[in-house]
Write a structure and sequence with these properties.
- The longest helix is centred in the last third of the chain and has 18 residues.
- α10 runs parallel beside α11 and α15 runs parallel beside α17.
- The protein has two domains: 189 residues, Rossmann fold, CATH 3.40.50; 261 residues, pyruvate-formate lyase- activating enzyme (Alpha-Beta Horseshoe), CATH 3.80.30.
- By secondary structure, it is an alpha/beta fold.
- Helix content is 36%, strand content 15%.
- α4 links the parallel β8 and β9.
- The chain has 17 helices and 18 strands.
- The protein has a six-stranded parallel β-sheet. Strands 4-1-8-9-10 form a five-stranded parallel β-sheet, sandwiched between helices. A three-stranded antiparallel β-sheet has the order 2-7-6.
């Protein structure tokens, strides 16, 4: 029998050439689960990307997932046919996450919901969302299925036409979600000013307004040894290749004490030992935000390890910041450089210069970080970018003694670079979001061909090998 107040939340499969659990957690869903519970809803949860699922581990004949001690690891993968538009790509395509029969078992174990809320990630992961929704609808044909998340926000019309969801909610549109809840269950949720999951209103309304703010429903996760933390939402920069401002809205920082309270709660109650800061601008306004946060972590003697997979801005690293990172026990340090070309730096957002980057590396070195442990994002495939620029960037990073993290540009509709990417590439980028996937080298032409991209990847690997 269907319970009127039962809501099922689903983190969907990923369909791609590659996917890796770099401390990925569906934080939007977890915040939403906490809010729904506080409003009296009965919440259930199915995570297709749960590497700790007992049925999956039993099938793998393992007691715990393969991976690194800090929580990173490979998702379970089953090879599936490539979509027609990707058939010419010489790589294997797969479904990442639970095998379909285990997903069906997970769905069968929850009460029949009135409403199903599905999140989404990259735009080019939409086939995994499609399959998740299709299977869910077969099991719960009477339920209303709502899609949110990154794909739903960046490409809402495509999501409405192709995802299979009954409704698509863009961004953190709590008012629209409340309407859908009321239509399906007879009652909605309070407006954002009541202290909702990460809204602009809550984070800017002051301490009293946030006193009852919802906490993520961490207990829904089977493993909490590693966890994602956001000390801010959005980004104050407007980099031409980035859509953070569209996905997360206006930049706002949380009270540093509240962030440390959250870390302490996870550390003490959930035995979390590894924390990945997924901020887009962790060090921005460092004197009033990052530094007090680190000082409080050190004062409370929270014995944990911290990571920055999203990269931090080198411009804001000085001797004091580097020393605090070291004392607080930051282990994974990733810096955003992208390119050493002054023209490209200025054109794409002006968030760092070569001299600022070199100075940041020197400060981290002085604080005790081996240079080869510092990982640096370099980007290839930007519209108009030549291979020479990428090679110079790679050699510069290597010359600084740092490890290269070479990434390929992914064209995102709505960003400044989008129209230029469409004009530059021989691929029909507007026809299908699958072509936004960096694995297909989206911006290809006579100068930046498939072979050139492969040569740049080889060069990065060879340069990294010299550091070992």
């Amino acid at each position: 029998m269907m319970n009127r107040d039962t809501v099922l939340l689903i983190n969907p499969w990923i369909h791609d050439f590659a996917a890796y659990d770099l401390w990925l957690r569906p934080m939007g869903l977890l915040y939403l689960a906490g809010r729904l519970r506080r409003c009296g809803f009965e919440v259930h949860w199915v995570d297709c990307l749960d590497r700790h699922n007992p049925r999956l581990l039993e099938r793998q004949k393992r007691s715990s997932p393969a991976g690194k001690p800090d929580g990173r690891g490979k998702f379970y993968k089953e090879e599936i046919p490539k979509p027609a538009i990707l058939r010419g790509i010489p790589r294997r395509y797969g479904r990442y996450g639970l095998p379909p029969d285990i997903f069906l078992e997970e769905l069968a174990s929850v009460p029949r919901p009135r409403l199903v809320l599905v999140t989404s990630g990259m735009t080019y992961w939409y086939p995994g969302v499609q399959e998740t929704i299709r299977v869910t609808r077969e099991v719960f044909p009477e339920a209303r299925i709502v899609l949110g998340g990154t794909y739903a926000t960046l490409l809402p019309e495509h999501a409405r036409a192709h995802s299979g969801a009954d409704c698509v909610v863009e961004g953190s549109d709590v008012a629209r979600l409340s309407e859908i809840l009321e239509e399906a269950t007879g009652r909605g949720i309070p407006p954002p000013s009541d202290g909702c999951f990460p809204s602009e209103e809550c984070e800017t309304a002051g301490e009293d307004a946030c006193a009852t703010a919802d906490k993520p429903a961490y207990d829904l996760l089977r493993n909490t040894s590693s966890m994602v933390v956001h000390s801010s939402w959005g980004c104050p920069f407007q980099c031409t290749y980035c859509a953070s401002w569209r996905v997360s809205g206006q930049f706002r920082q949380r009270d540093p004490r509240r962030v440390v309270d959250e870390i302490a709660l996870l550390h003490e109650r959930y035995q979390t030992r590894h924390f990945a800061f997924y901020d887009d601008a962790l060090l921005f306004a460092r004197d009033g935000h990052f530094q007090p946060m680190m000082q409080e972590i050190i004062r409370r003697k929270i014995s944990a390890t911290f990571h920055t997979p999203n990269a931090v801005h080198p411009r804001f690293i000085d001797a004091a910041v580097a020393a605090l990172m070291r004392e607080a026990n930051f282990q994974t340090i990733r810096l955003g450089l992208e390119t050493t070309s002054p023209n490209s730096q200025l054109r794409s957002g002006n968030k760092v210069t070569v001299s600022e980057f070199a100075q940041a590396v020197s400060f981290l070195d002085g604080a005790g970080y081996p240079r080869k442990s510092i990982e640096v994002y370099a980007m290839m495939g930007l519209p108009g970018q030549e291979a020479k620029e990428v090679r110079e960037t790679l050699r510069f990073v290597n010359g600084e003694g740092c490890t290269i993290r070479l990434v390929c540009y992914s064209p995102i509709p709505g960003t400044v670079e989008w129209e230029q990417a469409v004009a530059w590439s021989v691929l029909p980028l507007t026809t299908d979001p699958l072509l936004h996937n960096p694995s297909v080298y989206p911006v290809r032409n006579s100068e930046m061909s498939w072979g050139v991209y492969e040569e740049l990847k080889t060069l990065a690997a060879e340069l990294n090998s010299t550091l070992r």
